C-alpha cells in the first residue's frame, strides 16, 4: 500500500521513511538513472503500517542521464512534486530528485504538499517558482535546515544526496534508537566493487526488488539518448516535444 494521504508523521517517523527513499536514490543515481516522479503515491509500504520497509516504485518517467546532462530538459513528472527547473524548460540533473524528495519530506511532516491547490494552474505556477515557505512551522532547527537545503529552488545551491546524509538531522536520527545505516556516500560507493555496493547499500529484499524493476524498465534502451520517457496525458499517447513546451501539463494517474 502507498504512504497514507493526509496523515502527518513525527520527525523521527518521517526520517525513517525519507531515509529509505534517499538510500534508494543513491542506488539508482549511482547507476545513472533519474526517477523524476517521486511523490507519495510512489512510496509503497511493503506491509501495512510498517514504515521501515518502503519501496520507491513506478519508474515510468525515469531515464538514464549522463554527467554532462546536456540532453536532460524534457518536462515530466507530477506538478506540485517536481523541481522548478523541470517546469522551466531548463537543463537539469540528478538534483531534481533531491527536490522532489524534499517535497515528500514536507508532505510527511505537514500532511499535504507545499503547492497543493484546488486550481491546477495555481499549483503549476507555484511549483515553477519553487519557493517553499517554512516560517509557519515549529520543526526542530535540524529539520528546517534540511528542508531548506533540499527545497532550494536554485539547483546550484540545493543539497546533494551526500549532504542530506551528512546533515545534522540525519545524523541525529540515524544513531537514535535502532539505527539504520545511511552513512554511505555516493563518493564512497564509487570506490567499492559492484558486489560490495549491493551488499552495503541495500537489504537483500531491496536489492532484488530494484534489480527486477530497473532491469525490466530499462532493458529496452540501447543507449541513454534513445527513447527518452515522456510525460503522458491521461487519455493520449506520449506528448510531443511541442506539447512539452506548454505550461498546461497533465497530471499522470498512477496505478499501483
Automatic annotation (TrEMBL):
<keyword id="KW-0808">Transferase</keyword>
<dbReference type="GO" id="GO:0005634">
    <property type="term" value="C:nucleus"/>
</dbReference>
<feature type="region of interest" description="Disordered">
    <location>
        <begin position="227"/>
        <end position="256"/>
    </location>
</feature>
<dbReference type="GO" id="GO:0004674">
    <property type="term" value="F:protein serine/threonine kinase activity"/>
</dbReference>
<dbReference type="GO" id="GO:0005524">
    <property type="term" value="F:ATP binding"/>
</dbReference>
<keyword id="KW-0547">Nucleotide-binding</keyword>
<protein>
    <recommendedName>
        <fullName>Protein kinase domain-containing protein</fullName>
    </recommendedName>
</protein>
<keyword id="KW-0723">Serine/threonine-protein kinase</keyword>
<dbReference type="InterPro" id="IPR008271">
    <property type="entry name" value="Ser/Thr_kinase_AS"/>
</dbReference>
<keyword id="KW-0418">Kinase</keyword>
<feature type="compositionally biased region" description="Polar residues">
    <location>
        <begin position="233"/>
        <end position="249"/>
    </location>
</feature>
<keyword id="KW-0067">ATP-binding</keyword>
<dbReference type="InterPro" id="IPR000719">
    <property type="entry name" value="Prot_kinase_dom"/>
</dbReference>
<dbReference type="Pfam" id="PF00069">
    <property type="entry name" value="Pkinase"/>
</dbReference>
<feature type="domain" description="Protein kinase">
    <location>
        <begin position="1"/>
        <end position="170"/>
    </location>
</feature>
Amino acid at each position: 500500500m502507498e504512504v497514507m494521504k493526509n496523515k502527518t508523521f513525527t520527525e523521527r517517523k518521517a526520517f525513517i521513511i525519507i531515509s529509505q527513499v534517499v538510500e534508494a536514490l543513491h542506488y539508482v543515481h549511482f547507476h545513472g538513472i533519474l526517477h523524476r516522479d517521486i511523490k507519495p503515491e510512489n512510496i509503497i509500504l511493503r506491509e501495512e503500517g510498517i514504515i521501515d520497509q518502503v519501496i520507491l516504485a513506478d519508474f515510468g518517467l525515469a531515464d538514464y542521464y549522463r554527467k554532462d546532462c546536456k540532453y536532460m530538459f524534457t518536462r515530466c513528472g507530477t506538478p506540485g512534486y517536481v523541481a522548478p527547473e523541470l517546469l522551466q524548460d531548463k537543463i537539469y540533473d540528478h538534483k531534481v530528485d533531491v527536490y522532489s524528495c524534499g517535497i515528500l519530506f514536507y508532505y510527511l511532516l505537514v500532511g499535504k504538499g507545499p503547492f497543493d491547490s484546488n486550481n491546477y494552474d495555481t499549483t503549476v505556477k507555484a511549483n515553477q517558482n519553487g519557493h517553499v515557505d517554512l516560517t509557519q512551522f515549529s520543526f526542530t532547527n535540524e529539520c528546517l535546515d534540511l528542508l531548506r537545503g533540499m527545497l532550494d529552488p536554485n539547483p546550484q545551491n540545493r543539497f546533494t544526496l551526500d549532504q542530506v546524509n551528512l546533515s545534522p538531522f540525519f545524523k541525529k536520527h540515524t544513531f537514535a534508537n535502532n539505527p539504520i545505516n545511511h552513512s554511505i556516500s555516493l563518493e564512497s560507493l564509487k570506490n567499492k566493487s559492484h558486489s560490495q555496493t549491493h551488499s552495503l547499500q541495500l537489504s537483500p529484499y531491496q536489492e532484488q526488488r530494484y534489480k527486477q524493476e530497473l532491469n525490466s524498465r530499462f532493458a529496452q534502451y540501447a543507449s541513454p539518448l534513445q527513447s527518452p520517457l515522456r510525460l503522458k496525458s491521461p487519455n493520449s499517447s506520449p506528448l510531443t516535444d511541442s506539447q512539452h513546451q506548454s505550461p498546461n501539463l497533465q497530471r499522470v494517474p498512477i496505478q499501483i
